[in-house]
Design a protein that fits this description.
Blueprint lengths: L5 H14 L9 E4 L6 H10 L6 E5 L8 E5 L6 E5 L5 E5 L13 E3 L3 E2 L6 E2 L5 E3 L18 E2 L1 E4 L2 E4 L9 H5 L2 H6 L7 E10 L3 H6 L7 H4 L14 E5 L2 E7 L2 H4 L14 E7 L3 E6 L2 E9 L6 E9 L6 H33 L6 E4 L4 H15 L1
Antiparallel strand pairs: 1-20, 2-12, 3-4, 3-6, 4-5, 5-10, 7-8, 8-9, 11-12, 13-19, 14-15, 15-16, 16-17, 17-18, 18-19
The chain binds FE2/S2 (inorganic) cluster (FES) and fe (ii) ion.
The site of FE2/S2 (inorganic) cluster has 9 residues, from loops.
Length: 379
């Protein structure tokens, strides 16, 4: 959230609190059930969204030091992200150029990336630095057998890849004006605290729909986040296919004097940004929750990663316990409250009970998101 927009941004939820209203779409949105079940639509989305658009795959804190790396397989490509000695980030295929073995697993720090099969050794920029019995490969120079690379960019603390070999990463064009919104959070120095991966039997868009309205806060979450946030109430803003929901915490009503010295909006709201197509960035008080949602092998399956990033590494046991509690809360709400409902919905889609579902005018982000998906798929 830009410093300059914060006073005006505070007034909108305050008005909604006073008038018991919320941001409204111009009309109802009827969403065909087939959008969540059709293999044809899933294949088109895979091509148009998950092979043709830049994808955010984490914060810079995933690669905290020179020599650090992590693997990433959720796009369907075996990716290996690294940071070299000059601090530059690389996105490589985690596939050895000798006979195709997977080079590394998980995350860590290494001086060299060494294949576990015959020990071909790669530098962090993908160069093939050494191979045993080099003379046996005469005529096949090491210079032409580095790891295959994908376009990658590190910007304002976020890591972006282009999930297709040989395709350029047009990040500036993809982000447009939401770029300065992301920059305003100053995420470059943030520390990766933890990540949880949830594979569930629900379409990836259904998993994402979970984050797009507060209408359900005091019904489904009556014993958890209902205590903290106003329900069915929030501001909605868009930048191209990207958008933001700002939901006020209950503290906003008391802290409504926005002209008081040192007044800040951030402690009194949660800011939910959807970076199209599949990243949900949630600003919570003083830390960041980052969700990435990927299609699974069938339209009925998806993978959601939930990560918490914090301003600095925990300096004490009590700090670590504090962030662990935060992490457990967010995972718990999604895993025990939101996603079981989503899996039930996915099953219901195969019952023939209805051919469309409906998004109310009080759920403007849902219609906006699904229209953006349809537009992108239609080209
Ligand atoms: S497959 Fe990697 S060194 Fe042989
Ligand atoms: Fe929810």
């Amino acid at each position: 959230m830009l410093q300059s927009e914060r006073p005006a941004l505070a007034r909108r939820p305050l008005d909604y609190i006073d008038t018991q209203s919320t941001a409204m779409a111009a009309e109802l949105y009827r969403q065909p059930v087939s959008e969540y079940t059709s293999p044809t639509i899933a294949a088109r989305e895979q091509e148009a969204l998950f092979r043709s658009l830049p994808l955010c795959i984490g914060l810079s804190g995933m690669l905290p030091t020179a020599g650090s790396y992590f693997t990433h397989d959720h796009t369907g490509l075996p990716l290996l992200l690294t940071r070299d000695d000059d601090g530059e980030v690389h996105a490589l295929m985690n596939v050895c150029r000798h006979r195709g073995a997977r080079l590394v697993d998980g995350c860590g720090e290494a001086r060299m990336l060494r294949c576990p099969y015959h020990a071909w050794a790669y530098a962090h920029d993908g160069r093939l630095a050494a191979r045993p019995a080099d003379e046996a490969f005469e005529g096949m120079p090491r210079t032409t057998h580095g790891l295959r690379r994908l376009a990658v960019e590190e910007r304002d603390g976020l890591l972006w890849i282009m999930p297709r070999l040989g395709a350029p990463l047009a990040l500036e064009r993809h982000l447009g004006a939401v770029g300065e919104q992301i920059a305003s959070f100053g995420l470059a120095g943030f520390h990766h605290f933890a990540t949880r991966v949830l594979a569930r039997r629900m379409n990836w868009k259904l998993a994402l729909d979970t984050f797009l309205e507060s209408y359900h806060f005091c019904v489904l979450h009556r014993n958890s986040i209902c205590n903290t946030f106003y329900d069915n109430l929030g501001a909605f803003d868009t930048w191209g296919p990207h958008f933001r929901l700002v939901s006020p915490r209950k503290t906003l009503a008391e802290a409504r004097d926005t002209s008081a010295p040192g007044w800040s909006l951030l402690p009194h709201v949660v800011g939910i940004y959807v970076l199209f197509p599949n990243t949900v960035l949630v600003w919570q008080l003083d830390h960041l929750e980052l969700f990435h949602i990927y299609p699974g092998p069938t339209p009925d399956e998806s993978i959601t990663t939930i990560s918490v990033y914090i301003p600095e590494p925990p300096r004490s046991e009590s700090a670590r316990a504090h962030w662990q509690r935060n992490f457990d809360i967010v995972v718990g709400v999604v895993e025990r409250e939101d996603f079981p409902v989503g899996e039930g919905i996915q099953r219901s889609f195969h019952s023939g009970a209805q051919d469309h579902i409906v998004f109310g005018r009080n759920e403007p982000a849902l219609g906006y998101f699904h229209r953006a998906v349809s537009d992108a798929v239609a080209g």
